Protein: Zinc-binding dehydrogenase
Organism: Streptomyces chisholmiae
Amino acid sequence: MKASVTKGLGQGFVVEEVELAQPLGHEVRVQVKASGLCHSDLSVATFIGEDFPVVLGHEVAGVVVEVGPQVTQTKVGDHVVGSLIQYCGACVNCLSGRTFVCLRPEATLRPAGQPSRLSWQGAPVAQGMGLGGFAQETLIHENQLAVIPDEMPWAPAALIGCGVLTGAGAVLNSAQLQHGETAVIIGAGGVGMNAVSGARVAGAETIVVIDIEDGKLERAKAFGATHVVNSRTTDPVEAVRDITGHGADHVFDFVGARPVTAQALQMVAKGGGLYLIGVSTGDAGVEVNSIATLSASQKVQGVYMGSSNLKRDIPLYASLYLQGRMNLDDLVSKEIGLSDITAGYEALKDGNTARVVITDFA
Ligand SMILES: NC(=O)c1ccc[n+]([C@@H]2O[C@H](COP(=O)([O-])OP(=O)(O)OC[C@H]3O[C@@H](n4cnc5c(N)ncnc54)[C@H](O)[C@@H]3O)[C@@H](O)[C@H]2O)c1
Ligand SMILES: [Zn+2]
Ligand SMILES: [Zn+2]
């Protein structure tokens, strides 16, 4: 089968003929129908990856074509979405419903000693995040898959697996925003827009979106932002205080640069929270003054994958989309072929492109 292989740091994405193993145990063979281009895969391919060659791609949707002997949660013909959240289902965190902090995430991968799921020219090939969606087919552990309704279109379905779980989950699960509360979303990209959708679903009274590009802010209004602020031209801390009166109940940082996060903390109301999701520099973080923070009863929380339970949340967002209550169509800016990944990532630099999705695997 064809797969796009990254052979080393900075060596891009090259389509090759790659072998896929037979499904063992809880593995499911999925024919990929859509695969989203997320920034983190580009980071792996250009500066943080260690395991090469590798097939990346972690926003995957497709059809189940074969199941391993121990699979119980899905069957041939099911439409599924994959997620990079790996969980064992048996540790104390999994058993308390918090699968996103599983203590044995490697349980969804093949243990050392077993043949690789992927190989190229007779040698093993790594599989990005247990998913490897930049390929015609892939083998995924059933715990990393959720079944979606057949009528869900493929391109928006793929985006649910990372960007939607992260953005909407940050609001609904991590912050547990209550109706009538106020939210600030910093960074109006492909993930931040889903936080806007999440805030809308939860009944936020005020949804302020902050970015440095007017085009992104215009799009944010279409997703449900009640106020937008261009932080290049307006002091965002003052703007948030003007809009909310006393700061925001929940401030979500999808940018992750020290000056931005410092401003984000200043926007938090008494009793409110700051949520750290994005990382754009190696020293991303924030200085927290204990006295100021304790006297205002504030919290600062790191958010991994929107604190999501993928088996519950992926079908939920698909359902909200099908009911017209969650905008995913405007996230799909461009559909491309498997051999166009490099150009697809280039296109993402354009301010008007939210997400690029591979839908042609021929
Ligand atoms: N924590 C997690 O589990 C998790 C999961 C997925 C993605 N992420 C991260 O979430 C972040 C957002 O992802 P994305 O795909 O939406 O990225 P993106 O590039 O599409 O969006 C980032 C947005 O931030 C804006 N921006 C840049 N600098 C800014 C500044 N100084 N002030 C205000 N806005 C600024 C950009 O204009 C852009 O609209 C990334 O850092 C990504 O790695 C985290
Ligand atoms: Zn991602
Ligand atoms: Zn576990």
Residues 87-88, 90-91, 93-94, 102-104 surround zinc ion (ligand 3) (CB under 6 Å). The mean pLDDT is 97.
